[in-house]
Write a structure and sequence with these properties.
Blueprint (H helix, E strand, L loop, with lengths): L1 H9 L6 H35 L2 H22 L6 H11 L2 E7 L2 E6 L4 E3 L26 E5 L2 E9 L2 H46 L14 H56 L6 H32 L9 E4 H18 L4 E4 L5 E5 L1 H18 L6 E8 L2 E9 L13 H11 L3 E6 L3 E12 L7
Parallel strand pairs: 7-9
Antiparallel strand pairs: 1-2, 1-5, 2-3, 4-5, 6-8, 8-12, 9-10, 10-12, 11-12
Helix pairs in contact: 2-5, 5-6, 6-7, 7-10, 8-9, 9-10
Length: 462
């Protein structure tokens, strides 16, 4: 018992496929999120370190300022030429341009939209010698560019890192999706591989392979299915072995009984011929012939009973008992009483405890008689005459139980050739809605018949 409990506790805990799938989904999602954040952190740090450094940003800003200055000088633009300045900003894609006159905003544009302010009176900044722009930032980060209508302060903001940030985000999303897809594909691949393996093993079983190995290492629905297939495989093997044994028993039984029947039948016919021809010298010899004939007839009866038991157990067709209702007390007194008398006549000591509580049972009497014949025949063949045989009938709730117990001698007698007597009883009882149980050890052998019963009221009860 302790070993069974230890084995049960050591068995891996069963996890359903739904739980596994949910675990894989959650795990892959966590891994994907982790990969996404790692890529984002690495990508953003790389951008801030190399692309968004102060030196790199200043170089790009100066490049745009020089390009704007060349554009203004080339086309002689005024600060109010909003369309031309907007076209330049749009061409640069990621530039936001603001032109100031003093503290007033003259123009704002990012290429897609333009806003203009109030210019008022023109008070130009003094341009450097030669009339060129002052292409160095002032304390506000503005540059002085000479337009056709004067020198104006220009603030330029470039945001070319936006597509790079978008690219980093897309790469992080792609990496996260790749991880999510890979984990799920790996799980599905493992699950599919297990299903294919189980399908292949089931095909082997279907083809009749006795040595097919069914892997039952999964602790989920697939494992349950594999274990069911394994039980089915073992059942098929046992059935095939049983059929082979039955076939061998059938052949042996037919051969043996054909010989056994021929011998007593020939002797019986011979004795009957002697009696019919009155070939006996006196009454004593005639009685001896009669007794010999009776013994041969009983031997033939035993052989035919053995044939009945065999075909009842191994025959294909199910028996169809004719069920009728009987008084259990009276019926058992008749059926058990016959066998008790027979045992006592053969020098057995019998202790009987007959049924006392009134009840009725629904049985086929002929089949029930055959069941008792088999059980008491088993007692005669294997029972110890030096120990009492106990026959007990009792009512247990709504069940009638009949127990037959006997001791087994230290040197047991030879067992019956077919060993199907108890199987016959079991089949008879099951066909009549009852059950049959055998309990045995080295010294004691007990059989118990159980049949559904209905209690009846005794006379005088209210």
């Amino acid at each position: 018992m302790k070993a069974d409990k230890t084995k049960k506790n050591n068995r891996p805990k069963r996890v359903t496929l739904n739980a596994k799938l949910l675990t894989v989904q959650l795990g892959s999602l966590c891994m994907a999120l982790l990969v996404f954040f790692i890529f984002m952190v690495i990508g953003q740090n790389a951008l801030e370190r190399f692309y968004l450094s102060e030196e790199a940003g200043l170089r790009r800003e100066m490049r745009y300022i020089y390009d704007l200055n060349d554009y203004v000088q080339q086309y002689g633009l005024c600060s109010t030429d909003a369309d031309d300045l907007s076209a330049w900003a749009k061409k640069q894609k990621y530039v936001y341009l603001v032109i100031y006159k003093g503290e007033e905003t003259v123009l704002e544009t990012n290429g897609d939209s333009v806003q203009t302010g109030s210019i008022g009176s023109v008070t130009n900044l003094v341009p450097p010698e030669g009339g060129t722009a002052l292409l160095t930032p002032d304390e506000d980060g503005c540059y002085a560019i000479a337009f056709a209508d004067g020198v104006f302060r220009v603030s330029l903001t470039e945001y070319s890192e936006t597509p790079l940030y978008n690219m980093v985000t897309m790469l992080a999303l792609a990496a996260a999706c790749l991880v999510l897809l890979s984990v799920n594909l790996q799980y599905n691949r493992s699950l599919t591989r297990s299903i294919i393996r189980l399908n292949r093993e089931v095909q082997w079983v279907e083809e009749g392979s006795r040595d097919a190995v069914i892997h039952t290492d999964h602790q989920d629905e697939l494992g349950d299915l594999a274990r069911a297939v394994e039980r089915m495989r073992r059942a098929i093997i046992q059935r095939m072995q049983g059929e082979q044994e039955a076939w061998k028993a059938n052949s042996s039984l037919i051969t043996a009984i054909s010989h056994d029947i021929r011998t007593p039948l020939t002797a019986l016919i011979g004795y009957l011929d002697l009696l019919e021809g009155k070939q006996y010298q006196n009454e004593e010899q005639m009685e001896r012939y009669l007794r010999a004939s009776r013994d041969r007839a009983l031997q033939l009866k035993e052989l035919t009973e053995e044939l009945f038991r065999y075909f009842l157990v191994f025959g294909q067709a199910e028996m169809k008992p004719k069920m009728e209702e009987y008084d259990a007390v009276i019926l058992l007194e008749q059926l058990l009483g016959e066998h008790v008398v027979r045992l006592r006549s053969q020098e057995y000591t019998v202790q009987t405890f007959m049924l006392e509580e009134p009840c009725t049972i629904s049985v086929d009497v002929q089949y029930l008689r055959r069941a008792f014949d088999n059980l008491f025949s088993n007692v005669v063949k294997h029972g110890d005459k030096s120990r009492p045989v106990v026959v007990m009938a009792r009512l247990d709730g709504d069940t009638l139980r009949v127990d037959i117990a006997n001791d087994v001698p230290a040197r047991p007698n030879a067992a019956e050739s077919t060993r199907i007597g108890l199987q016959t009883v079991d089949k008879i009882l099951r066909q009549m809605g009852g059950s049959f149980e055998v309990r045995r050890d080295e010294k004691r052998f007990l059989t118990e018949i159980a049949l559904p019963a209905k209690r009846t009221e005794q006379e005088g009860e209210t």
